[in-house]
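Sanity check. The docking grid for molybdenum atom depends on where the pocket ends up, so I'm generating a full predicted complex first rather than guessing from homology. Inputs follow.
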Amino acid sequence: MTELGFPGWLRGSHLANLLLISLLVRSGIQILAAHPKLYWNDSCRPGTEWLRLTRKRMPGDRLWTSMDEEEPYSAWVALPGGHRLGLGRHWHFASVLAWLATGLVYIVAPAVPPPGHPYNALQQLAYFAVVFLLTPLTIATGAAMSPALQGRLPWLERPFLGRQGARSLHFLCLAGFVSFTAVHTLMVIVHGAGEELGKMWLGSEHADPRLAIAAGLGSLAAVVVLNWVATVQSQRHPRQVQQWLGKLLHRPQEQASKLLSPRQSHVRKDSFFRVNGYPPADEQYRAMARRQFSSWQLEVGGRVERPLSLTLDDLRKLPTRAQTTKHSCIQGWTAIGEWRGVPLSSLLDLCRPAVSARHVAFFAMDDKDQTAAEGEHGHGHFYETISIEQARQEQTILAYEMNGAPLTVEHGAPLRLRVEGQLGFKMVKWIARIELIDDYRHLGQGQGGWREDNMFYSPAVAI
Ligand SMILES: Nc1nc2c(c(=O)[nH]1)N[C@H]1C(S)=C(S)[C@@H](COP(=O)(O)O)O[C@H]1N2
Ligand SMILES: [Mo]
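Predicted complex below; grid placement will be based on this.
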């Protein structure tokens, strides 16, 4: 049978392709929904977007955050739908790995001359464009958005006009894949669904056309069912999906974020810098802010030889480092800011961590029971952890200044973390206490931070 139709490996990978592209497109839409605006500039000032897929308008008279801009798209278009960016990203990156693996099949499988009717020139051109232009462009623009690579290989995003250009092009690639799939399907139907489906799903152009159409529809149904399972499973058992897909993704991300020590340096800075996370709302914090944080103290403890207690003045006397870097929020926006503060490594030299200390935890003053935005489901005080290797990287600092002035309340006064190779959510604002720990599994819900616990993000984010 096979010699008359497509060989088995091709038929299998075609089905896998259909499934994986459907997962990639839906999870990609989920990621887009987290910041449904596209730009050609990395400042992301409201009004400069070339495409907006939201009707929400942000208020002009009060503080709003980038979580407020997120759209809870329906599960009909997004995987898994609603405010589930963390799981959408897990699906997207797991599907990318699987998709690249099926791509390898095409390369290692023996070259077989195309069976049946030869393709016409236009068809050949279309397939060539998808395989040799659209696919590499999608991969390159995806990679160019990685915060870890951005710091290490800044030239990667340049041909795409920056990270937002890469993001815009990545979206246009998605539109390309969707259009190709639609036209391709239409061509198959026009050309004779029975015969074409017979070749693709049954491996023979002489198969009974009714059987062939049934096999084609059956395959389509399988793809729909698998999408449905992925959606429902993510909605009902988010922790399970985070950990299950995490087995594939978390370790490589962690390794990459240790290896890729960022060295970002920008010349200009943005006058507009979005906020994410509402400031602490309690009276104690407000009273501290009114006194310019003179009564605030940073506590450093846990697995250290010498616990520390430092005022803002004490911190200003320690070694300083200034850096102008591009901030990448997991939601999708970027902004360039100049930061000044104490290198975290200087602080570690002072407190002398025990050899068993593998992570650094940062505990903040904002209690999400009082400050959460829409879609930020979760309780308790914000915290995040980073690995000791990241803590020692050159561009990991505790910043008390932004753009030449003391940190404002919205941006994390009196002290916030900058850990440049990571996404924004790791950069804890309003820090009260730092602890050196052996393991983060005993903190919160054990996933490595407030957003990992409550929003199912990955604990180390190289991409
Ligand atoms: N304490 C605290 N720190 C936080 C957050 C938060 O909600 N609480 N949000 C994080 C996220 S998701 C981002 S993108 C950055 C945003 O920093 P900015 O508000 O200075 O732009 O802060 C991070 N630090
Ligand atoms: Mo963020």
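Relevant for the grid: The CA atoms of residues 62 and 444 lie 31 Å apart.
Also worth noting: The longest helix spans residues 162-202.
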